[in-house]
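Example 3.2
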Amino acid sequence: MKTKRNKRAIKKLLHLFYKNYIVGIFILCILSVGLVSLYKLFVTKPTYIYARVKLGQGMWWASTAKAPVWFVKAIKNNVLEKDIIGKPVAEILSVRYYPWGSINGITNQFDVYITTRLKVTSMGRSGSYSFKRSPISVGMPIELDLSSSFISGTVTQIDTVPFREVYEHKTVTLEKKYAHPWEYESIRVGDTYFDGTDAVFKITEKAVGDDTQAFAVEQGRFIDPSVSSQRISITVKAKVMVEQKDGNLIFAQEQTLIPGKYLTITTPHYSFYDFVIKGIE
């Protein structure tokens, strides 16, 4: 009896499916998508990549506002973004930030760089990936909805293994001409800049010289002798943490250190600008 009933039920279902085959196909499609999604969520092994991101809005070439200090403080290490079932899709591994605009004395905005671990989907044999259904590659924008903040930025580097960060310390000699005496007084030996992960800049020595007239000849401009005592030259030595990249010394993620270039950084008592790199040891 049970066998006959089962056969009748199957015949009814087939008959119903035949009469409403469009609805049946639609239901089968939904079931197939659901099964594939469940398989990916609970069975397949997730794929992770590591990405470095420079915070900002839009594409990398867009000129947008920098992060204010209150936003920098909201971004923390080991903060997660989770999917609908509570599994992490993004994790902040490190945060580094550097004052922006110190050339104009503005130090309440920062360039922020984060290192993240992302759960991604491999896009076939091309070697590319997608993150939250959007392609991810160097130069592409990315958004992270973290428990502590919502951030957006541009991907600057991608790798399938953790980044190997090899830093070293160099003694950099800086010089500024036509400086005010108060600038020399503001610079304090021992002052450091902490970028959120490491102390990357520490003042070890400072010296002053009064040779304004020589500078006036060199610069091709005249300085009234009556005020010449108001201008001095300042030499500063600092211990600077740098990273070797393609034969270059990189400071603060993007500043290339070579003699003749300017270095900008802020310490608790002084904002360095118009300081030229005189030597690197």
